Structures are given as C-alpha cells and as structure tokens.
Amino acid sequence: MRFDYVIVGGGSAGCVLANRLSADPALTVCLLEAGPADNSPLIHIPAGVLGIVPTRHVNWAYETVPQPGLSGRRGYQPRGRTLGGSSSINAMIYVRGHRADYDDWAALGNDGWAYADVLPYFIRSEDQARGADKFHGVGGELTVSDLVEPVPASRAFVDSARRQGIVENRDFNGASQEGAGLYQVTQRMGRRCSSAVAFLRPASGRPNLVVLTHSRAEAVVVSDGRAAGVQARVRGRTETIEATREVVLCAGSFGSPQLLLLSGIGPIDELERHSLPTRHELPGVGSGLVDHVDLALCYRSPSRDLFGITVRAGLKGMKGLWEFYRHGRGMLTTNFAEAGAFIRSRAGLDRPDLQLHFVNGLVDDHARNLHYGYGMSCHVCVLRPKSRGSVRLASRDPSAAPLIDPNFLADDDDVQELLAGVKVARNIMDSDPLVTHRDGEMYTGEARSDDEIVDWMRRRGDTIYHPVGTCRMGVDDMAVVDPQLRVRGLERLRVVDASVMPTLIGGNTNAPTIMIAEKAADLILAA
Q1: What is the DSSP string of 75-109?
Q2: Is 335 within 8 Å of 193 (Cβ atoms)?
Q3: Partner residues linked to 216 by β-bridges
Q4: What does the pLDDT look like over 132-187, one tens digit per residue?
Q5: Which residue in 169, 289, 316, 486 is deepest, having the highest Cβ count within 10 Å?
Q6: Is 216 helix (H, G, I), strand (E, B) or coil?
Q7: Cα separations (Å) of 368 from 55, 67, 166, 382?
C-alpha cells in the first residue's frame, strides 16, 4: 500500500486534511482511524453524548495518573475513537478562543499564526447560519448554528449573569469574547455536524482517498532521517503503508506524542526506559501538557424543562426521539452545555481568564454518577492554567493507554483563579431569574470559606476536555514542530492536531483544531 500522504487519525484535524489533500485528483491519500466508522446513532443525536462520554462506546475513556492537586484521584479523559474523533463525542460548542491567544502564538516566534493570519481559515471552514460578516463565513463545510430549542433555564442563566454586571454577548467569536450568552453549536438541522460529517463525507467518493477504519498506527517508519510510512495494525493484520510525500500525525494530544515515542522519536531517557531504539532525539515530545481544569457546581431543580431521570422524563424522551427524527427538533437536539460566559477573575486583565458552561442537567463526575430527579450544573474552568504535565508511555505495547499527567492545580495561581470563578458562578446561580429554576447546591453547598471551597475543588475538579501542547509548535529547543508543523530534525513528517498548540487558547478547542488543519493543508500543498 503506497500513497502520497498517509494521515494518522480520522478526528477533527484528520478529516479536514483528508478532504483538502484529496481535492487534487493527482494526489493519493490514506486516512487511518483506530476506531470504527461513525455509524452509531448516539453520535448524530446531539443528546446521545450522554451515552458516549461516560462509557467506552466510540470513546478511548482514558484515565490520568493519580493527581496530587485533585486529592490523589485519577482524572477522566474521554477522547473520540471513531471517524470525527472528539468532534463526534463533544458538546458541539463552536468557540475559537480570544484573538490575543493567537497573537501570543506569533509573539513566541510562530510566524503566520497571529489572529489576522488564522481568521481566514476559520472563515474558510464555516457555514454560519446567521450569515457572513467580517468574522464569519458561509458556504464552508462546517455548519455553525444557534441551538434549535434551548431550555428556559439557559436563557435565565444569561439574564442572571446580566444582573451580576456581566454583559450579554450573542457572538463569542465576533468583535469581543467577553460576556454571557447562548453558545453556537456545530449542528446541521438539529443533528451533530462533526468533522467527519462536514469534511469526510463529501470526499468519501473520491477514488484517490482511502479511509481505513479499525486500523491502529503502531509506529512511524523512519529511514535516513525521513518518514517513509506507517506500520499499522489494519483489521487484525500488520501492514506497512508507504508515504511517498509525507506522513501526517493527527492522533491528538495523547495519541500523537505516544506514536512518536513508540517510533523512537522523543527524549532519550523515556525511550531507554522502555528499551526503544532512538531514531531521533527530540526532548519536547510529550512535555507541556496543559488542560482546562474545571469544577462543576451541581443543583437539584423543580423544573421539568431540564433533563432528568424520572418516569416522566423517560416518556418525554420517547416523544423527543420522534420529534428529532421527524423534524430535527425537540429535546434531543440539546448539546446540554447550552449557555455560558467568559469573564475576568479580577480587574486589570487584558482578556477573560475564566469560562462558564451552564448545563441543563446534573453532570456529576462526567455523567458517570446518575441521580434520580431533575437538576442543572454550572462548570467553571481556568482558561490559561500555569500547571504543566506530560504524556509518557506506560509500555512499548502500542495498544496500551499512555500515561496522562495534566498535573492539575499544581500551581497556586490556578487554584486562586478557579476559586474566584466559583464565587462568580455561585452569585449567578443565586440570582433571579435563575434561582427560581433550582433547589439547593449539592456537595459544595456547605462550603463557604475559601479553604472549604478549595477542598471541594480538589475533591471534585477535573478536565473540561481540552488537552493541548504535547507536540508544541515553536522555535526553541523544546518545540516538537516548527511553525510549518514539521517535526524538527526529520523530513516528511508533520503533526497537525491540538497537540501543536504552543499555549492553551481561551475556550473550547475543536474549532481551533479544525483551523490548524485548514492552515496545515495549505502548508503541505505549498511544500
């Protein structure tokens, strides 16, 4: 099997690249995906995320190593294991981050990655239901729309935030990010518009594109200082898939560094620890992991408009299923995290450092702990944490999960920012009109002093699913890829996914990952 380009990982970035590279009929492209095709109805029904995130259904369902900052607990790290990757299992929120985040990338020496440089790539992908303007595009593959039927409590959250002096913002991706509002989502006619739906399906009939599912890459084949292909387990058989132009890793912030290490590319001490031959010393591989640490405040509620676990809710869900398949409407079109806010923990900051996600149901331990009745949740996350962790190998077995260490709440500044965010979130949840939609605060309700709240943060905090930075882009010695996303010191090998982000952007990471792939396609085709 020989192709011009071999792409490892059919997720948010890989599907974009498969589309853009195969658009030239003279090029041959192979896309490898370890998981199955995205045929599960739970993927395409937005509310089906409740059956995916807490389970191993099309989900790697990783755990972290024990986290000292989280009272020694193991965190949970769901990641998509299907075509579309995590865009097939996420909450579909379309957020690009703050414009200054990208200017920060450029200031670190990453020429071509300032906000003015990347905005055209966001616009290129977008099919904005509200229409085009200087921040948004129409006619792109990725549908971005307003929620079909947000619940009244989500609107009440925005109104309560206004009562707390937080401005209302109808477009977090426009002129200003700050404020509270309803999120826009990657949905098309009430259905999930994943990267696979948006980019891969339109390209699937091209004879020059081969998509291999149930095909797990085990190593990059390196010869004479260049990537020559990929060794993969393809439906139970070991195959070598040759790449005559480039190998592109799109396996995500956990998968891409793991594959580089398994290929003998990384820090020597880590390779020697597993008796792996050193093909290329690159000390930054797997370092610099950073993720949005988050605390969910949970509340019971008397409101029957929210999601709940009761007999009545079950009957309502059956009606919702009919509405969904018949009209693309109804309760099953929810992304759960319907509203939110970007706020500052203190005066003097140049941009918001906290994000809130208001959820129209009880989200306890990533929905793995279910409660009878109705409720709501408010997530609080630190947007630019200082704590840094790593991804390492558990063993040289490619099928073994990597060792994931986000090192949550190791830096006291992260603790203080999250504490400030919890206080703001409580004020919103205690304000009219939202307060009429909820009963008492679960778990953390008795915590009032700072020490008591911090104790709960450590006992209940975890990820909001935005790991980046493990194959960081840059020009320093610890950078893994250069600003053209080429692996430093090797030819014909790039990394294109969230792992290349030099700093964590202030917001959800799916839209930026798609942008990175759009820009990477131009870089690759211009090479």
Answers
A1: EEE--B-STTGGGGTS--B-----HHHHHHHHHTT
A2: no
A3: 233
A4: 999 999 999 999 999 999 999 999 999 999 999 999 999 999 999 999 999 999 99
A5: 289
A6: strand
A7: 8, 19, 32, 23
Q: List b or e across 292-325, with b for residues whose CB sees 16 or more CB atoms inside 10 angstroms.
A: bbbbbbbbbbebebbbbeeeebeebeeebbebbe
User: What are the residues whose beta carbons fall under 8 Å from the beta carbon of 469, sequence distance 6 or more?
Assistant: 253, 288, 289, 290, 388, 499, 501, 502, 503, 504
The pLDDT tens digits of the residues spanning 151-165 come to 999 999 999 999 999
Q: What is the DSSP pairing of strand 280-281 with strand 373-382?
A: unpaired
Whether this model's pTM surpasses 0.70: yes
For residue 123, the Cα-to-chain-centroid distance in whole angstroms is: 19
The β-bridge partners of 493 are: 247
Is residue 371 exposed (0-12), middle (13-18) or buried (19+ Cβ within 10 Å)?
Answer: middle
Query: Residue 68 in contact with residue 459, Cβ under 8 Å?
Result: no
What would the mean pLDDT of 304-328 be, rounded to a whole number? 90
Ramachandran angles phi, psi of 42, nearest 5°: -65, -25
Judging by beta carbons within 10 Å of its beta carbon (0-12, 13-18, 19+), is residue 56 exposed, middle or buried? exposed
Element of type H or E holding 427: helix 412-429
Determine the pLDDT at residue 17.
98
User: For residue 444, is pLDDT > 90?
Assistant: no
Q: What is the pLDDT of residue 282?
A: 98
Q: Between vectors from CA 355 to CA 339 and to CA 420, what angle results, nearest 5°?
A: 125
Tell me how far apart the alpha carbons of residues 105 and 212 are, in angstroms, rounded to a whole number.
34
Helix %, strand %, coil % of the chain (to 5): 30, 25, 45
Residue 115, pLDDT score: 98
Residues facing residue 354 across a β-bridge: 343, 382
Active site residues: 466
Instruction: Work out the widest C-alpha separation in the chain, in whole angstroms.
Output: 68
